[in-house]
Amino acid sequence: MFSKINFFNGQNIKGWKAFLKNLCKDNPAGILLLIAEETPFEYEKIQPLLKELKTEVCGCVFPEVIFNGLRHKQGAVGCAF
């Protein structure tokens, strides 16, 4: 199913780049991003990072995301598959 699942707080663009590159490290077939709606990010700034990846990325925005049993109103869960 998922080869890697990570959480990122979504606070800065450099962090997004590192988060996405880490998810792509093992050349997954795709990445699923689950983003909490209060995450302070601008799609216009993240879009170029997504285009750099050689992996398909899909995702959705939710009121909250859950990671390691904790609910987060800000942040993103990335799942490589």
Kindly describe this structure.
- The chain is of the alpha+beta class.
- It is built from 2 helices and 6 strands.
- The strands form 2 sheets. It has a 4-stranded mixed beta sheet, with helices on one face. A two-stranded antiparallel ribbon has the order 4-5.
- Helix 1 (13-24) runs parallel beside helix 2.
- It starts with a strand and ends with a strand.
- The mean pLDDT is 93.
**Major beta sheet, strand line-up:** 1-6-2-3
Please give the share of residues in helix. 25-40%
Structural class: alpha+beta
What pattern of helices and strands is seen along the backbone?
A: EHEHEEEE
Q: Which residues form runs of ≥5 with pLDDT under 50?
A: none
Q: What is the number of helical segments per DSSP (H or I, 4+ residues)?
A: 2
Radius of gyration: 12 Å
Biggest sheet features: 4 strands, mixed
Distance N terminus to C terminus?
6 Å
Beta-strand residue fraction: 35-45%
User: Which geometry do the CA atoms define?
Assistant: globular
Mean pLDDT across all amino acids: 93
Number of strands: 6
